[in-house]
Amino acid sequence: MTSFSPPRPDLPRPDLSAARPAARVAVLLPCYNEAAAIGQTVAAFRAALPDAAIYVYDNNSSDGTTAVAAAAGATVRVERMQGKGHVVRRMFADIDADIYVLADGDATYDAAAAPAMIARLADERLDMVVGARQSEVQAAYRRGHRLGNRLLTGCVAWIFGRSFSDILSGYRVFSRRFVKSFPVLAQGFEIETDITVHALELRLPVAEVMTAYAARPAGSASKLSTWRDGWRILTMILNLARTEKPVTFFGLFAALFLATALGLSVDLVATYLATGLVPRLPTAVLAMGLTLVALLALVCGLILDTVTRGRREIKRLAYLAQPAPGAGNDGAPPA
């Protein structure tokens, strides 16, 4: 018979957490003509996260951005397809890490907030922490951009039931599970909306913290067009509503067509009941046609909802195929 001896309380127990490797942190900085700001941005993140790997992906800059980034100590790579969405897609595919910090290379985001964002991601086992922008400097966050952000944020909240206070923030911290299971479809500045909707659609564990937002340094200019990029973001929200909430999207059209058909039919029905005649045949045909279109829209929504559920299950399985945050290490940022 094998005897069992309980562990002696007077003997020291090994510290198993010390044997776990520290989490690998990668700072991702997409850039386009940011020579005036990228050196300052790299230096700020190097000071905040001294053990992190810092990657600058240049997007066809013509002002020497790559040389300045390399001189600042970043690993510089190039993405030729123009657009921030293309750059983020390449970054997420190429870089291997446990925790990813995504920011812009224009020195507007507070690099000193990164350790706290990483700590929250690790402590709460989250998949994304969004750095919501907070600034008292009018030049840093223009009034038109604030208003557009509120409108777009409201649209996302109305469509998907919940949202963040700043869906367009480019300052985010991700788990490896999120990055390696996220199918990047956006091409330009609508990438932040794509990321936000993906997290809301799969109901991933996320959080939001307020972070300082500064004005660009002298010589740096914004690449964001208020109207053009705002329209692209709004278009993406509508497309995502169509693909992710098809019953709601097509149901609204069905309700509109059906209400119009009923409105046209009131007098026709009253006349028919009184005289037994339908004197306005074109109106009757139009009402019938609108009713058929409404039924067709509703059926399309129901069919596409089945397809959407299948796609969502596939996304969820791809997400679950990745290790959970903290698996294989203690999830803590490097010292």
Automatic annotation (TrEMBL):
One of its GO terms (molecular function) is transferase activity. SUPFAM superfamilies: Nucleotide-diphospho-sugar transferases (SSF53448). InterPro entries: Glyco_trans_2-like, Glycosyltransferase_2, Nucleotide-diphossugar_trans. Residues 27-148 form the Glycosyltransferase 2-like domain. Keywords: Membrane, Transferase, Transmembrane, Transmembrane helix. It comes from the Bacteria. It comes from Sphingomonas changnyeongensis. This is Glycosyltransferase. The chain crosses the membrane at residues 249-273, 285-307. Gene3D superfamilies: Spore Coat Polysaccharide Biosynthesis Protein SpsA, Chain A.
